[in-house]
Amino acid sequence: MNNEKSADSSVKETLCVACDRNISTVFDRFEAMQPECGFGQLGVCCRNCVMGPCRIDPFGEGAKEGICGANADTIAARNLVRMIAGGAAAHSDHGRDVAHTLLATSEGKTEGYAIKGKEKLFDLAKELNIKTENRKIEEIAHDVAEKCFAEFGQQYGELQFTKRAPKKRQEIWRKNKLTPRGIDREVVEIMHRTHIGVDNDYENLIQQGMRASLSDGWGGSMIATDLQDILFGSPTPVRSVSNLGVLKEDEVNIIVHGHEPTLSDVIVTASQDKELLELAKSYGAKGINLAGICCTANEILMRRGIPIAGNFLQQELAIITGAVEVFITDVQCVMPSLGKIAGCFHTKVVSTSPKAKFPGVEHIEFSEEEALPIAKKIVRLAIENYKNRKKELVNIPKEKMELIAGFTSEYVFKMLGGKYRATYRPLNDAIISGRLRGAVGIVGCNNPKVKHDWAHIELTKELIKNDVLVVTTGCSAIASAKAGLLLPEAAKKYAGKGLQEICEAVGCPPVLHMGSCVDISRILTTLCNVITEGGLGEDISDLPVAAAAPEWMSEKAVSIGFYAVVSGIYTVLGLPLPVMGGKNLTEYLTNDIENTVGGKFAFEPDPLKAAKLIIEHLNKKRELLKLKPMMYIK
Ligand code: SF4
Ligand code: MSK
Predict the structure, then answer these.
(1) Those residues with Cβ within 8 angstroms of residue 60's Cβ, 6 or more apart along the chain or in another chain
(2) 551-579, pLDDT tens digit by residue?
(3) What is the pLDDT of residues 24-57, one digit of tens each?
(4) Which ligand sits nearest to residue 50's alpha carbon?
(5) Domains 244-393 and 410-624 equal at CATH topology level
(6) Alpha-carbon span 364 to 384, nearest angstrom
(7) Could you tell me which CATH number the domain at 244-393 has?
(8) Which of 4, 29, 451, 621 has its CA 20 to 30 A from that of 48?
């Protein structure tokens, strides 16, 4: 009955449990919502003022203009750039919180953090022209945090990290007035321009959307990634396990769900506290088992090897296993339904961010200044709740899969070149010689409109089969993990001969887990390094690379898609952007935009057809670069 809902049998099994117990999940609510609003899907409803709401009829005899005179292109463009503002704000506010934590840590005001990534701190200080000689680590970290903070409120000039982009890309941005001036400024300007009666030109609106998206990818997200590496240490490859089967029948199970490792990292520390482990034993549990969901899971997986319980569409299901004592949330991608579902079990949902509360859910406010005591309090709550677990309600699916995660732009450099000759040369040479066709970033969420995980997995398999190296983040990375694609053995099973040879030589999987959604900035940095290494053109748009989000759903994904396109990357989305009611706008985003920024969108729900589009694109780029024919698969 649930075969069409997920490619993951643990999901199917848990959905049967939900059905038997009459618990409604996201999958049921999705069905109940059908048919969804067609005007919304096409992007042509507007409620930006109270003369409306207005809706445009793109096909029939209905209204062609809103009451103020806005047409379908204007309305769809305004709605779309507001989505970018939402996504960029979410990622960037995450970056701001990390900057705050680093600053407070450098001033000795936090409990539970240390500056673990000293090498990264020195590298970043150098990049930001901050003096390092004869200075304490804390002083340098303080100045780095302050400088990053300033990027949010900056009014003029250019964001610092845009200078990481190849020179040619920077010129494209400057020429088209796309270089972001300040992170907050670009988001605010979207809200201004989309107010009734301001910007009515769809191209001009999209221009500001592009600029704001760059302030995310080359601003807020990059700050989040780099400062997290400084605080928590840069990831290196690590083995772990994924899927609901990581929950344990005889241990206290704690789930962390959300996005910011400032919370989850310190929960890891608390869950390993000797006193709390003893306490757990005194309650009859064999230990404390921590697992993650969504991007905060990716963060603590990459740095601490903590198992992953699942991705976006599995959050409710983790509770339905009946084996979770405490389900901790911070911000982003947390379903409002969790409290209600937890009410059917002994599970306590605990919200922690002042920005994200839920009616009826216990709130233990997190503060970086008292991080460790708060984390211990939450872990203690979980231990004390263990006795309330009802054995007859426990259904932990057996599915779990090993994985390797923790690849960064720095590690790729070392991995390929070896310890004494760290370089991107072998990667560039593999592409130039035709052993590797190119590389594709597969990222983004799950969406009940698509069979859960299916599009991620099929697209990934088809690409690696065609000698395309896949890098992945977010919920897509978790889908690949559960399908066994993050193991070196997957190369032999699924990859083309060229990619297989590389994976065998280096000992890496054919699909590289590069972290959370904000870590897509790692992919951007890697591409810059590939250009610097030489032989593959002068700009990101010259490279045989592409991006895909086959099951996306969030505003953050819209922002990511845009900064990929505006960085010169062909980007294939499994679900269309909600713009199809604006014909000129759709044509602009899927074609004309390429003349300005070198990248464009394509919308393709079928993962095999999406793979075909991507392979054709990579081949076209290879031809333009006059690279050798592919060695094995034409
Ligand atoms: Fe209607 Fe224009 Fe107001 Fe939008 S801004 S609700 S289109 S009148
Ligand atoms: S968590 S934004 S559902 S990838 Fe980053 Fe997953 Fe999408 Fe949230």
Answers:
(1) none
(2) 999 999 999 999 999 999 999 999 999 99
(3) 999 999 999 999 999 999 999 999 999 999 999 9
(4) 1
(5) yes
(6) 16
(7) 3.40.50.2030
(8) 29
